[in-house]
């Protein structure tokens, strides 16, 4: 449950932002990270940005999520055959 | 990457050899538990290096008495229960939110969703079921701040928010505990900061290493723990650099302090933990569901035969429980560790079965 996902801020007005992670966009709040700017990468948890993080750190997580997705799809394909 | 894995392996082997006994590392976060299984880390560890799943899944440590309170509120008819999805299937004394068909239950992804529900349904009281560790609590604090500013009358919070440090201290204060070190949660630490673990190191002399959730982070986190154990030292080290700061997220911590205060609440399997649960401060009592409806949490007994309590303390493995896989499965969960996907039992069920069948 306490897992946060990295995403890039693509719109920002006051503490309301739209963020993008791997092409998925959603709304979040930056109340807890008042210093972030447009284009920054933040960790999002339960609708709130909780920290600004370096881009390479975010890339590692995005890559991992993509790998999990691929494995999951492969797994589902396998269970259908079973 | 291979170099880093080899280096980690060497540190782990050295620690096992040096100590000449088994080493027990507790991961305090459900997300670590899942990452360890998903990435197949456990079988790669040297024999004698054990990973224990600690009380780091907020759903699992929520006492059944709290679930019973939620069900009581859901049965009133004048409330809308707004909750994160994880809580919907947790069984209380009389079913769960999912099986209670009369209840108006809405799954929300953020506290903003819960506030929106209050706007849309002025004739009902929206009760937000606030569970989770320090990663989640600041969002609840912001919601209460918004509700206070907007003078919202039909919104309140049933707080079961937990603090991770008191739980770790409770486990270590137990004489029979087998914990040599902690792999500390990455995203909780984003909020509380790595310095928060200093009292554990100072008081109990156990290494505390903060790591992220990618496989290399987990492996190198365990390796750093082994380095310390082999050298006989205990330090707080964060290998989640650039993400976790020593002081954490100060703004989030200030908001938590402003709205919440710790009290001795009940944890499943661990009983009452001194200062381990958060409730709203007195000046925000009007947003506290317990105050508003005059209800209180009565600690409940665990279901007969369920060993979730021991699993959460690292004293039993899910497979030690006679109900595991037979009476208790993710489709028919008896205890909370099977309900939440981050629970130790659910992770063992999902990822550990094939290996057991083959081996």
Description of the structure:
The complex is a heterodimer of chains A (82) and B (359). Chain A has 82 residues and is α+β, with helices and mostly antiparallel strands. Chain A is 33% helix and 38% strand. Chain A has one helix and five strands. The mean pLDDT of chain A is 88. A five-stranded parallel β-sheet of chain B has the order 2-1-7-8-9. A four-stranded parallel β-sheet of chain B has the order 4-3-5-6, with helices on both faces. A two-stranded antiparallel sheet of chain B has the order 10-13. With 359 residues, chain B is of the alpha/beta class. Chain B has helices at 2-19, 30-38, 58-61, 64-74, 111-120, 137-149, 164-173, 186-192, 198-204, 215-231, 250-259, 289-293, 308-312, 336-339, 344-358; strands at 23-27, 49-53, 79-83, 105-107, 125-130, 155-159, 181-184, 208-210, 236-238, 260-263, 266-267, 271-272, 277-280. Chain B is 40% helix and 14% strand. The longest helix of chain B has 18 residues, at 2-19. Chain B has 15 helices and 13 strands. Chain A binds chain B through residues 1-4, 28-29, 31-34, 43, 45-48, 50-51, 53-54, 57, 60-61, 64, 68, and chain B through 29-31, 38, 56-59, 84, 86, 109-113, 131-133, 135-136, 138-139, 142, 185, 187-188, 190-191, 212-215, 242-243, 249, 251-252, 255, 340, 342.
